[in-house]
Design a protein that fits this description.
It contains eight helices and seven strands; from the N terminus they run αβααβαβααβββαβα. It has about 210 residues and is of the alpha/beta class. A seven-stranded mixed sheet has the order 1-7-6-5-2-3-4, with helices on both faces. It holds the Pfam family PLDc_2.
Length: about 210
């Protein structure tokens, strides 16, 4: 019997106990790294509402300089995109967002845009600014269904989805909402939806009009 360890435990038993504990810890680390799926609640999600409460007066909504905290956050997401933007929005005519997409193209991001064909019928639509910057826009009626989505997937990781078109009216004159989420299962579903539509649609630009 070993006096140094007491309780009737031999040196060999203590050694095997320590080895077993260390081995268990190593196995747990491996399980965490390769098999453990983080809780879906750990993936960031937030909700934005419009009109933006950070704009105290209605006159602020129509200011060319006061965009509000919520819209500034959306622009920040667009400006910090690293690889790709997949944009599927019924109507696009809001210059701050269109300009952010053009800036992303200049950073050499892969950009794909799906919009309703009525957007393309307006010769003064900012959609033509995208076309002129070599951004591929696909737009055609899908059977008898209206293309009424309003979502964007950033870098295949972040989803912005809600009620708002990219129009001055949506951000400056309507009650709207946009959810921003990184939840992988949700983002994956929207990526599939975008790719399904993209594959069905034809590239359809009318000749780019000359704006006078």
């Amino acid at each position: 019997m070993s006096f140094s360890f007491g309780l009737g435990m031999s040196s060999k038993a203590v050694f095997y106990t320590i080895v077993s504990a260390v081995a268990s810890e190593i196995v747990w680390k491996i399980v965490q790294k390769y098999f453990y799926q983080p809780s879906i609640e750990s993936e960031k999600t937030m909700v934005l509402f419009f009109p933006d409460k950070s704009l105290k007066k209605r006159t602020d909504l129509y200011s060319k300089t006061a965009l509000g905290e919520n819209l500034e956050l959306i622009l920040k997401y667009l400006d910090e995109a690293k690889k790709s933007l997949d944009i599927c929005v019924f109507f696009l005519s809001y210059n701050p967002l269109v300009n952010a997409v053009i800036r992303a193209k200049k950073r050499r991001l892969k950009i794909r845009v799906i919009t309703d064909e009525d957007t393309m019928k307006n010769a003064y639509s900012p959609i033509y600014d995208l076309v002129q910057n070599n951004i591929e826009v696909r737009s055609k009626a899908m059977d008898h269904y209206l293309m009424h989505h309003k979502f964007i997937v950033i870098d295949k990781k972040i989803l912005l989805n809600g009620s708002a078109n990219w129009t001055p009216q949506a951000f400056e004159g309507n009650y709207e909402n946009i959810i921003i989420t990184e939840k992988k299962n949700i983002v994956k579903s929207f990526i599939k939806q975008f790719n399904d539509h993209w594959a069905k649609l034809e590239v359809k630009y009318d000749p780019i009009p000359i704006k006078i």
